[in-house]
Structures are given as C-alpha cells and as structure tokens.
Automatic annotation (TrEMBL):
GO molecular function: kinase activity
Protein name: histidine kinase
Location in the cell: Membrane
Gene3D superfamilies given in the database record: 1.10.287.130, Histidine kinase-like ATPase, C-terminal domain
Record organism: Sedimentimonas flavescens
Histidine kinase domain residues: 252-462
Annotated EC: 2.7.13.3
Principal subcellular localisation of the protein: membrane
Segments crossing the lipid bilayer: 20-39, 169-192
Annotated catalysed reactions: ATP + protein L-histidine = ADP + protein N-phospho-L-histidine
SUPFAM superfamilies the UniProt entry points to: ATPase domain of HSP90 chaperone/DNA topoisomerase II/histidine kinase (SSF55874), Homodimeric domain of signal transducing histidine kinase (SSF47384)
Enzyme class: transferase
Domain of life, per lineage: Bacteria
Keywords for this protein: Kinase, Membrane, Phosphoprotein, Transferase, Transmembrane, Transmembrane helix, Two-component regulatory system
C-alpha cells in the first residue's frame, strides 16, 4: 500500500539539526560534567591542602626544646587557618622524637608506610570519627645537645567544605555550559531556517505554476541548492519532451490518418456498389495499396513515439553498430517490403562501438532502411564503419536521393502529406535525426557516384 505524502514525510532539517545538537550537547555535557567535577575536586583539594600545610607548618614551628624536652606552644594562627572551613572537624597530633604523643589526639590514623620514604609533607586520606578526612604529616628535625631526633606533626580535616567547593565549581561551570548550549541550539535553528528559506520560496514558486508550465525554474537560489534546481529543470525538460511526443502523436494521428481512412472508406463503399468485376478488382487493389501505405505510416508514427520515449528513459550502454546492421538484414523484412530487391551488408572486422540505446538505434536504422526500399533504387546497402572520431551506421541506395524540396525540409516529421497518397517520405528521416541528436550525433546526407547515402554519425566510444 502506497503511503501518503504526509505519512512518508520525515523530520525537518531544523528538527534534525536541533536533535543532533541536543544529543551532541548531552554527550558532551556528560563528559564535561565528569571533567568539571574532577577539576573542582582537584582545585578544592589543592586549596584546602594549602590550609593543612600552613597549619602543620605553624604547629611544627612552635615546637621548642626546653631543658632537653620538646615543648609545643600551639599557635593561634594555625587554628585560624583551619577555621576557614567552619563546617569541617579538625584533628592534630604532635609526636616527640621517641614517638610519644606530646599533644593532640592519640589515635589519629597514620600515613601508609610506603609514603614515609619521603622527607617532605605526606598527604593521605583516612576516616576520622566516622567521616572521610584529609591528613598531612610534617616532620621537623632537631640536632641539639639536649635533644636530637625528628618531631612529627599530623593535622587532619574532614571533607565537607572541600566537597561543597568542588560541587559549587562544577555546578557553576555546568550552568554556563547549559546556557551556552541552549543558545547554540537556538542560534543553529534560526540560522538553518534562514538558510532554508530559499527552498520555501522555491516550493511556493512551483505551487503557483500552471500545471502545463514545464519551463525551467529561474528563481534565484543559493549555490548549494542550484544542483537540486538543475535536477528539477532536467526532469521537467524530460517531462516536456514526453508531453510533446504525446501531443505530436495525437496531432499527427488526427492530421495524417483522417484523409487516408476517409479514402479507404470511400473506395470500400464504391467497391461494395460496383457491379463490374474488373472495376471492382481495381478498387480492391487500391484499397489494398492504401492499407499497406497506411500500415507503414502507422508503424512509423508509433516507432517515432517509442524512440522519443526511450531517449530520455532508457539506460545507455555500449552498442556495436555492426550488430544492428546485421540484425536488420537477417530479419528479412525487406523481402516483404520490396520482394526481389537486392540488399547487401557491408561491415568490417573493426568494432563500431557507441554509447546509446540499442532499440532506439535499431528503430532509426530500420526506418532509414525502409525509406530506401520504398523510395530508393536497388541495390540497397546497409553498413557500419568508423570515420575519424565518429562511428557511422548508414543506408545507401543507387538512386539520386530525395528531391531538393525534401532536403530543404530535412528533419520535419512529414514532407508530403499522407492524406495525398498514404505515404510519408520525411517521417523516417525525422526519427533517425531525433535519435542521432539524442546520442550526441547528427544525420548526414551524402551524394556519391554509387548513389545516395544517409548516415547516423555518432561519437565513437572506446568500450569493447
């Protein structure tokens, strides 16, 4: 079942672009969100780690040696630094050179043993009172007479404030990304609609046309749409030629068949009323001759309509003109059209290749061959050869060729009215000329000592 145009339609270009941008922004947003959260966490960690190292350094600097013992005088500045994160809980511990806790929490988690190889600050994560926390271990070396060894300072802080800062950084970045993405989608839709406006104008121009108007579209369009307009113009040109072929067929049928049919009817009426056998036989002979001529005329008219239809619709392929000439002679139609007429075939061993439609070329050659049989003088020669860059399919007879009046009207569909004698000398030439022009060639009329030759000259193809 054929779908209606509405059900067969697809999403508009604007919707496709908007959908594609939304998908792109969503995927990109997810990636950027992960990257933003990672950056926020790194930035927050670096900022709060500086608070830890500042507090630990202040505490380590406050350790002094009095009478051979390490004494800690906790500085207020250290706790002021840590107080910059009011929502976090803090912990500290100071150990003497013998490992005993001098002040602070006695059960703080210790850094992993693998990190103790460095002499600088050591950062590590560990739980503190059931919450994740960040710690720093800092050492101070004493080498005095009364005290020699390393004092260890550990300062820790929970992660509430730094997690809040990381989320704030990420959310601010994502909010800017969302606003920017929405603006990009809106701007892209507006740009696409503006860019596609010529297509709407083209559609309106086509809708406003008369159904019989198949002339080329002259509406100014962007360069990207020009190929579409060219394809539409080419399609309408082919449609116009098809319509012309149908109009010509109807017109020719009405014009060329009315008189012969009327003459046949009149002669048939006379034959039915004639009592003299001899005169009745002559009338019957005329009716037969008229019928044969009328059949030939109908055959040529239908052949011309078929050829014009196939010129635009048939796929072009490599054709050897020698095969067409051979098929026409082997068909033996000349034995019925002109019994006893001498017919010869002249083809060589060199292929005569062109790009065209075998049926159209065959119809054109048949019409030339039948014209020669009907109007020419035997012997009739049918051949194919190569002359320069042209491949030629030709028919030759021993007569002088058409009259000057016929040649002056070369290419017209009818040279003599079929109403006069039921015959048309120009329709066959018109068919051959149409086929030759359709495939980039021409029809050549040549006089020589051997007689008159009509050749369909086409560009030669290198295909084998």
């Amino acid at each position: 079942m054929t779908e209606s145009p509405r059900s067969a339609s697809t999403l508009s270009l604007s919707a496709r672009l908007a959908g594609g941008l939304v998908v792109l922004l969503v995927v990109g947003g997810v990636v950027l969100s992960l990257a933003t959260f990672a950056y926020g966490r790194a930035a927050a960690r670096e900022a709060f780690d500086r608070l830890l190292v500042g507090a630990a350094s202040s505490i380590a600097a406050s350790v002094s040696v009095i009478e051979g013992a390490a004494v800690v005088d906790l500085p207020v500045s250290a706790f002021e630094l840590l107080a910059l994160a009011p929502e976090d809980r803090i912990a500290y511990q100071v150990r003497g050179v013998d490992g005993a806790v001098l002040t602070g929490y006695a059960d703080l988690p210790q850094p992993p043993a693998a990190r103790l190889v460095t002499s600088g600050p050591v950062y590590y994560d560990a739980p503190f009172t059931g919450e994740p926390a960040r710690f720093i271990r800092l050492t101070r070396r004493f080498a005095e007479r009364d005290l020699s060894g390393t004092i260890e300072v550990i300062v820790g802080q929970t992660l509430r404030e730094r997690n809040a800062l990381a989320e704030d950084i990420a959310l601010n970045a994502l909010m800017g990304l969302a606003i920017g993405g929405a603006a990009v989608v809106l701007l892209a839709v507006l740009v696409v609609r503006s860019a596609l406006r010529p297509l709407d104008e083209l559609a309106l121009a086509l809708a406003a046309r008369d159904p019989q108007d198949l002339t080329e579209i002259s509406t100014a369009v962007p360069r990207e749409v020009a190929s579409l307009v060219g394809a539409v113009n080419g399609f309408m040109g082919r449609l116009e030629r098809q319509f012309d072929a149908m109009r010509n067929l109807i017109s020719d049928s009405a014009h060329q068949l009315r008189t012969p049919v009327a003459a046949l009817r009149a002669q048939a009426d006379l034959a039915t009323q004639e009592t003299d056998p001899d005169r009745r036989d002559r009338l019957i002979g005329r009716i037969h001759d008229r019928s044969v001529s009328l059949g030939r005329l109908l055959d040529q008219m239908l052949s011309r309509a078929l050829v014009i239809h196939r010129i635009d619709s048939a796929r072009r392929e490599a054709v050897d003109l020698r095969d067409i000439a051979l098929d026409i002679v082997e068909a033996g139609d000349h034995k019925l059209i002109a019994p006893g007429a001498e017919v010869r075939l002249e083809i060589g061993e060199t292929p005569v290749i062109v790009l065209g439609d075998p049926l159209s070329l065959g119809e054109a050659a048949k019409n030339l061959f039948r014209n020669a049989l009907a109007h020419g003088r035997a012997p009739i020669v049918l051949g194919a050869d190569v002359k320069g860059a042209q491949a030629r399919l030709w028919v030759q007879d021993a007569g002088p060729g058409p009259s000057a009046a016929v040649r002056a009207q070369f290419g017209d569909r009818f040279v003599r009215s079929a109403a006069a004698d039921g015959r048309s000398a120009g329709l066959g030439l018109s068919i051959a000329d149409s086929v030759a022009r359709a495939f980039g060639g021409h029809l050549a009329l040549e006089d020589s000592a051997e007689g008159f030759r009509v050749a369909i000259a086409l560009p030669r193809s290198g295909e084998r």
